[in-house]
Amino acid sequence: MSSKELKVLLVEDSQEDSLLLVRELVRGGYKLEHQRVETAEGMRRALEASKLDVVISDYSMPSFDAPGALQVLHESGQDLPFIIVSGKIGEDLAVAAMKSGASDYLMKGNLARLVPVVERELREAEERRTHRQTQEKVRRGKAEWESVFDAVSDLIIITDAEGVISRCNGRVTSYFPGGYDAVLGKRIDEIFFGAEQPEGQVFRFLHSQGEADEDVRFPNLSGWYNVASYPMRAEGNDRGFVHIIKDITKRREVEEEKRTSDRELLTLYAVAFRLQYTKGVEKVMGDLLFQLHNMLQMDFSCIHLFEGEKLKMRASLGVSPAFEKAMKALPGDAEWSRLAQSGRPFLGEEPDARFPDKAKKAAAAMGLHSWCTVPLKIGQEVMGVMTVGTLSGRSYSDRDVFLLCSIAGQLAVLIDNYSLYDKMKEKAEELYKSKMELKDNLQKVKRANIELGRLNTAKNNFIGIASHELKTPITSIMGGAEFLLKYSGIPMTPEQHNILASVYEGTVQLRKLVEDLLSISRIETQGPLAQKKPANLIQVCREVQNLFVLPLSERHITVRIDGEETDVPVDEAFVTLAIRNLMENAIKFTPDGGEVRLTGRVMKHARLKELAPTLRQFYTPFPNNVATAESYYLLQVSDNGIGIPADERVRIFDKFYGVGDIAHHFSGETAFMSKGSGLGLSIVRGIMDAHEGVVWVEEAAGGGSTFSLLFPLQN
Known about the structure:
Layout: E1 4-11, H1 15-27, E2 30-37, H2 40-49, E3 54-57, H3 66-76, E4 82-86, H4 91-100, E5 104-107, H5 114-151, E6 155-160, E7 165-168, H6 170-173, H7 188-193, E8 215-216, E9 225-233, E10 239-247, H8 249-274, H9 281-296, E11 300-307, E12 310-317, H10 321-326, E13 329-330, H11 335-341, E14 346-348, H12 357-365, E15 371-378, E16 381-389, H13 398-437, H14 442-466, H15 471-486, H16 494-526, E17 533-536, H17 537-545, H18 549-555, E18 558-563, E19 567-570, H19 572-589, E20 595-604, H20 608-615, E21 631-639, H21 680-690, E22 694-699, E23 705-712
Parallel strand pairs: 1-2, 1-3, 3-4, 4-5, 18-20
Antiparallel strand pairs: 6-7, 6-10, 8-9, 9-10, 11-12, 11-16, 12-13, 14-15, 15-16, 17-19, 20-21, 21-23, 22-23
Helix pairs in contact: 2-3, 8-9, 8-13, 13-14, 13-16, 15-16, 16-21, 17-19, 19-21
């Protein structure tokens, strides 16, 4: 039989009695490890020094006793069997000791009971420890579940069978002021719907596998929610429900934004497809209005063009005969004509005093509610206006106005092309007549015809670019060339590879030219920016830098971005385009291994006087052309490249202007080795004009160039 290990603390003043106890335990089959103490301090040290299994104590000693030993054991916090072994002890003392926590007592003359008592008490102590551990696990598990319950991002509510809330997680209190007191004990329909009765039974629906829940809105909360309810049984026979309410507002907003963007893109695509100059201007305007009715749910629309000082209706759809008659021709001094000539959009929620009297009555009679009028213009020249309206109560947002302005801008370009085309036709007829009448001057007529053909070709090319007809084939060519170069795996000779690479690079340049032309068109036709929002320009610079990671790494050019991260009111898409053009130029003009620096800081209005001598070279009316503000944000892009000759710095912002010969247009050995379209800096200037700011260039310290963008900050 193997020995059982046992660690015993003997509280005993008699060495002989201690030996008797040890011998009895050893005889009982224990492998004993023991120590003897006879004072309270000695017992405390023993309890702290080692892990014990049992304490055996004499009842009375000269300087210590069993009740004192029990007190020391209790103070230590250890749950150990405490057995009293005494030569003489009265029954009343024994009972008192048991009430104080002693496990058992026996007489020194009857040690035969010692081993069974020890075994029993060790067993019961183990059971107590197991029970405590189980209770601790249950308590910890309950606390963990409580934490998880409160940490869940969904609203979790438990109700009884009548819908009265008995419990909820902490997320619920963030939606209802007043905390738990405002929720617990209330009916769930009451806190979500108030006095308004819900449609159907939102909180009675039981979720089942595979069945989709509907999205709902609550009168007492903003946003959209998804509700799932599950039955539960509490203690006894009480039944209740668990309701999980998920806030899906952000998801719905993203979905709505996607639907809106898809609708706008589809509208722009459909409009671009319809705007074909070969159909005739009247046919194009009619097709455009029909497309707007289908794509944007319009009920009324019309297009007016200026003919001299009068504003005449050239196309309409959905309007009544009375309205068409009243708006057919408007004199130049009419309010509608004056507003149209301003070149800015105007809109309203119902027909008002801006309508001619007869037109106002006709509009009200046909049920016109919301309406919007946008200019047809190229640059600052207003050609006419396009008006759309609906029967419904929805209002036109800034985004709607922006989309309509974009469409009107495309239509204006097409109408202008028609005008140019008609003028060129008239010129051709005059030249033909001159040829017949002036046979003796045939050589001059031939030269005139050659010049006319060149102008006609340039005109047709311009019309093709302005009509967006280059983007699709360019994309196809780029995609095909890139696939053959990078992914097809077709074996090619070096000569074939070089030819295909040249095709791809040329197509990239052509796409950049088309994008620049379209950017110029958007800037000139858009008018005042309607999409200004606060943006961190330093963060925008970092995002633009990511677009040039490959060329920067190939040419070992370092880009350093530093400055005050202040929110600036800008159209972020246009400003991103401006910074991208400046960074691309900086990379182009910087030698391999060079450095490009982008910095930004806020400057006070008083500093404009210091900039005046430099800026008046670029803007004669400066500072009158800059929006008045208490402070401005100055963003600078510097390089240590080849620089720009002083006599050409002012002219580089003109359209299609290129600095010097080809040597001024690259600095790398393998990349950026061709002239650009000459539009990049013109686009930057157009963007800054739209922001009522300025752009200029100076020689950078140590060589190279520094381009500066000055944005007004809101007061």
